[in-house]
Write a sequence for this structure.
């Protein structure tokens, strides 16, 4: 069962990463108006996805999920706050080029965080699969 769930989630992640690649590449050649429309659409998609995730977390009966929900909320808050602080620092500098460099730096580190998160997912997934296999082996030996 765990294999199927993890495989389905991995497929969803693959689709998202493919979209990420495509959208970044398209953004580099898009005009300003097209890029603004794409930003607005993506902001709405992100808001909708966050709402759906928060609702799924809220509806869960698992104590573990409530802990995850608190952690997720804290991470989202910290990332938003860091972004605001970086933008404020760039605005104070009075140099528009610095502001752009700061936004690119933030995007770069967020991609690093996403990579780290993916590695953690791999680790948790492998441990969960191993635990499930161990449980199955114990059940067969009884």
């Amino acid at each position: 069962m765990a294999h199927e769930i993890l495989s389905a989630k991995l497929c969803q992640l693959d689709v998202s990463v493919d979209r990420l690649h495509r959208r970044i590449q398209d953004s580099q050649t898009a005009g300003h108006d097209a890029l603004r429309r794409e930003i607005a659409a993506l902001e709405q998609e992100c808001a909708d996805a966050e709402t759906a995730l928060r609702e799924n977390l809220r509806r869960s009966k698992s104590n573990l999920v409530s802990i995850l929900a608190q952690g997720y909320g804290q991470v989202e808050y910290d990332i938003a706050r860091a972004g605001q602080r970086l933008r404020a620092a760039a605005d104070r500098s009075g140099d528009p080029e610095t502001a752009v460099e700061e936004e690119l730096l933030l995007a770069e580190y967020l991609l690093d965080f996403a990579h780290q998160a993916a590695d953690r997912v791999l680790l948790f997934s492998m441990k969960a699969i191993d635990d499930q296999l161990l449980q199955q082996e114990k059940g067969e030996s009884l």
Observations:
- The chain has a mean pLDDT of 86.
